[in-house]
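haha ok so turns out i had the wrong file open the whole time. this is the CORRECT one, sorry everyone. sequence first:
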Amino acid sequence: MADETAGKVKHVGGKIKEKVGDVLGDRKMERDGRLSQIEGEAEQDQARAEDAAEEAAVRKNTAKEARKQNR
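then structure:
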C-alpha cells in the first residue's frame, strides 16, 4: 500500500537533491533528484488511487445494502 506522505517527502527530497546537484555541477545528483521527484509523485498518485478505490467500494456496498432493505 502506498503512502501519500512518504511520497511527498520523497518528492521534496528529490527537489532539494536536484537543486544541490545543480549548484555543485553534479549532473548525476541532479538526475537522481529528478527521478526521486517522479517516484514520489507516482507514490502519491498510487495512494490517492487506493483511497478512491476503497471509497468507491464502500459506496457500492452501501447502495447494495440500501437496495436490500427496500425489497
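Residues 1 and 47 are 7 Å apart (CA to CA).
again sry for the mixup
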